[in-house]
Amino acid sequence: MTMAAVLLAALAVWLWAGPDRGTDRLRRIRCHHPPESRSLRERFSGRSRPARRAEAWRTASIELCHGLAAELTAGRTAGEALARALSAVEFPDPITLRPLIAAARDGGDVPAALLTAAPEQGGEAFRGLAACWRVSVTVGAGLSTVVDRVAAALREAQAHRQDVAAQLAGPRATARLLAGLPVLGLLMAAGLGMRPLHFLFGSPAGVVCLTIGLALDGCGLWWTHRLVTRAQA
């Protein structure tokens, strides 16, 4: 009985004080964990796979802009600078970038290749670079300057997304805690010698209570997720 009470108390403390998703994400950004560790952490962070993929594209795109600006400042041609910068950055799907690298090296239609390689989510930088490339070719503007502006805009947008995620960490943690309270209640009842599972699965009234409880819990999680998604958008 004592051991069960200790385990239940530890579970309650973990649910209440455990690191929330937004705080853990900011800690990863500040500490600059290796790619393997960052990927493993994001896999268990609760974020959807498309969201993780879009964030990886955005992070790699910022590195691409910095690398491209550095290559251009070093005096390389635009195509060579882009090819070298693309090869130096680790993208989520590097196979899709092969036509873009070929177009940059062979003098092909780089803006079209950029738009083709840009993913629907997380491809803002590629679309911005395509516009910069067209402006540079048409007007003769310095590509390095406009690339720096694109990188600055991407960093500002990323900082805004991180700030929104940090502000939404509280509601997410509260929803996660409330969703786990029924399980905690069942464990506490079992620890006190009751038989909650026998009631829930062994009687018509228990089945009705279980169905209603699961439906309400699911509706609460769905509604919270909807509110958080709308706030992020």
SSE layout and pairing:
Layout: H1 2-17, H2 21-31, H3 35-43, H4 49-73, H5 78-88, H6 98-106, H7 110-117, H8 124-139, H9 143-167, H10 169-191, H11 196-202, H12 204-232
Outline, from the CA principal axes?
elongated
Mean pLDDT: 77
Distance between the termini: 48 Å
Structural class: mainly alpha
Total number of beta strands? 0
The percent of residues in helical segments reads over 70%
Helix and strand pattern: HHHHHHHHHHHH
List segments where confidence is low: pLDDT < 50 over at least 5 consecutive residues.
1-6, 13-46
Main traits of this protein?
disordered N terminus, mainly alpha, 233 residues
Summarize the structure.
The protein has 233 residues and is mainly alpha-helical.
How does this structure look, described?
The protein has 233 residues and is mostly helical. It has 2 domains: 2-46 and 166-232, no CATH class; 49-165. It has helices at 2-17, 21-31, 35-43, 49-73, 78-88, 98-106, 110-117, 124-139, 143-167, 169-191, 196-202, 204-232. It is elongated, with a radius of gyration of 25 Å. Mean pLDDT is 77; it is low at 1-6 and 13-46.
